[in-house]
Hints:
Layout: E1 7-12, E2 18-23, E3 32-36, H1 45-51, E4 56-62, E5 65-70, H2 76-90, H3 103-111, H4 118-132, H5 135-140, H6 142-146
Antiparallel strand pairs: 1-2, 2-5, 3-4, 4-5
Helix pairs in contact: 1-2
Amino acid sequence: MPENYTVTEIELTPNPRAVKFILDQIVLDSGSKTIEAGAYLETDIFATNIFALEIIDLVYCRENFVSITLQSPDLWVIFKDKIKNIIEADLKKYEEGDDEVSSSILDDFDRANILSSPMMRKPLLLKLLWTNLSVPHWLTMAEGWKSLR
């Protein structure tokens, strides 16, 4: 049976509702995994217990960390230790992450001239950004995003 994780460090993120829990082991070998309420298997004890708190908006796993986004930043004062305990007690290594969008798909969209349509460009890029970029990438793309409006 796999060993439980230990949270070695807790980091603040640019988003005041999100906190990054650094782990002593890899939780995912490659890629990333996003878990939302109601969008996980019943056999995932970690997801079941974390969302049972009814204050979690999003869980994001990558390499050796788990980022948890709450409904309100004020809730961290009350729930930080409880969330840390759930991570350490229930989190198990995920075998695979979410499906990644490859650059060849973007090339296909470009050849089809979909990105040149203002009506299609913003929703498509939003979806690509949401599924593939972590918080630091969002911040570095802020200027590019302004130009899409």
